[in-house]
Design a protein that fits this description.
The protein is mainly alpha-helical and 268 residues long. The longest helix has 35 residues.
Amino acid sequence: TKLYIVDSEKLLANDLIKIFEKNNYEYENIIKYKKVPNIYISSLPKDLSKISSSKKKSLFIKSLLPLIIKENEKIISLNQRIRLLQSEFNQINRKDAVWLKKTLIEYKTNTMRVEDLLTKVDIIPVSIALAQAAIESGWGTSRFSIEGNALYGQWSWKKGSGIVPKERKKDENYEVKSFLSLGGSVESYMKNLNTHPNYNNFRINRALLRSHNISISGLKLYEYLNAYAADDKYAETLLNVIEKNNLDQFENVSIHFIVTEETLLDLI
């Protein structure tokens, strides 16, 4: 069961606090049980900047956690399907072959080798996904996150696909890509880290951790994302956000399906 927060246009920070309280969604429970409720929030409250810093950060993290975990679960499922086809490669049927080729292209695997595809189809550490969203969106208070659910500041050169930055120069034509939901922003961000040439070292070192059965974590991989921004010290900033907010404690959290029909009816 998935709990949808309805009418998110009118959702205020206090409404979100009450919803989380009703579902026992507190830090203590997350850390103790390594579980989060299956709550889907399509947009952040527009008054997030008006509450205290600690409450703002807490709401931001708890709003994004299920979305990040859910997207990573989708990536894991995709990885498993690819591995299954790889193990049965000599007897693969046409339908699966077409799907595999499409996935190779989708993930910009120029070598068209399944091994290289598997290097790209893997999870993004939760601490990194949270920290980058916090940095790029000002903990959910930036104009781009409020107007376009844009958590990660991704650029687009397609006119009308996003929001024009106020500081954009006259001779530039990029926009900050906007999304129908926060989930769309998380999905696009993860695909970006898994496909863009700038993050090749990130993917190679993630694959090395996998090959040595070492857990994937932001503290082991943050340094390979320095190219994400023009700031030469971006990786240092990323590490600072992870450590200062103890985001590494969310790495191995999963979704707990505890929503009842009564809870859902109460919210609609």
